[in-house]
Amino acid sequence: MAAPTQALRRTRLAVAAGFFLQGLVFAAIVTQVPTLKDKIGLGDGDVTVLLVVVAVVSGVGSVFAGMVAERRTSAVALRTALMTIALGALLVGLAPNKPLLTAAFVLYGLGVGGVDASMNMQGVRVQAAYRRSIMANFHGVWSVAGIAGALYASGVTKLDIPLGVSLAFIAALTLAITLPASRFFVAAREVEVGLSQEGLDVSWRPILLFGLVILVFYAADTGILTWSSVYLHDALDATKSVAPLAFAAYETGAIVSRFGGDLLVRRRGDVFVVRLGTALGIAGLVGVVAAPAPPLAIASFFVVGLGLAILAPLSFAAIAGAVGPAAVDVAIARLNIANYLGAILGGALIGVAASAHYLRWAFVIPLVMLPAVLVVAKAFSVADVTEPPTQ
């Protein structure tokens, strides 16, 4: 196997930066939900509504990203979407009331959907060029950013730095990295079919199959990322500086899973890794539900991340193998919709339970959904990196 060229390594680093920024901005916002609740006077029901709004709008953003990728390139889509989440984060921090906060989250949601779709479009192209599994590593970078964002949120909260100031810094950092990195995104237009024309002929079977896994994963993931800090603070009496550590523990497990996942895939195959990850996720959620105090809950969130975090990157890699390089952007744009259906399902159901003061039992919801992944795990045998992108 030939070593990657310097240009390809730069491209991989640039695309990884996109994953990093998405994770950083997301974590910096959601781990400060308790602070946001106090600043604006939000209840748990208000938080649930915002989550659903963001999820719905993100689905629209994902479709837009597919259209931009079709008409221009996924590189243009990713650059535009990253700039949008930077502006969204800034406005979330500055919003003084519920209506303006909702508007800020709508803008942020559009950007999130665009980044989610286009960064995976770029990632599968880079993986194809490397001719080996690296998608889990890209998602691992997202997890590193999640920890950085959670620790950042914990630090600024402890120092009493205003939310507007802390998110303004995140927005500026996002722009400062996006502008130079975007010059090295994969600019090739590989897709010859589109969302509104011949793209309708792309087989829906693999999209629905792997979409089920994406839906289940993001239902669990959204609930954990959004409600883990609230769970520790409200149900287990953790302080506001300790509460974000549940998020950080989950992302630490995700880092181990994703940075080790590619190697395990090469040795044991996708099917084995998907089954193992799902089993660990189930065990970890049992621990979360049963935890009597913050330390055990934090440890359990680590186990959940260790198991579940591998599912998303392997699903995007599998869809690329199932539909072929000519339809990758179309398939990913469609597959990514399951991300937000899962977010709506998980966020709404867990949010309803939280609003009814059943935060502990809210995590039973993703627990009972996970066995569905075991049913379709065998389909992941289709994943195979064989086609490099047009350079």
Can you describe this structure?
It is a single chain. The chain is built from 17 helices and no strands. The protein has helices at residues 6-30, 33-40, 44-71, 74-94, 98-130, 135-158, 163-181, 204-235, 245-268, 270-290, 294-308, 311-323, 328-335, 337-355, 359-362, 364-369, 371-376. The radius of gyration is 19 Å and the shape is globular. Mean pLDDT is 84; it is low at 190-200 and 385-391.
Name the features:
78% helix, mainly alpha, 391 residues, disordered C terminus
Q: What is the strand content?
A: under 5%
Radius of gyration: 19 Å
- Ranges with pLDDT <50 over ≥5 residues? 190-200, 385-391
How many strands? 0
The main β sheet shows up as:
none
* Helix/strand structural class: mainly alpha
Shape: globular
Helix % is over 70%
What is the overall pLDDT average?
Answer: 84
First-to-last CA distance:
18 Å
Number of helices: 17
H/E series, N to C? HHHHHHHHHHHHHHHHH
Topology of helices and strands:
Layout: H1 6-30, H2 33-40, H3 44-71, H4 74-94, H5 98-130, H6 135-158, H7 163-181, H8 204-235, H9 245-268, H10 270-290, H11 294-308, H12 311-323, H13 328-335, H14 337-355, H15 359-362, H16 364-369, H17 371-376
Task: Summarize the structure in short.
The chain is mainly alpha-helical and 391 residues long.
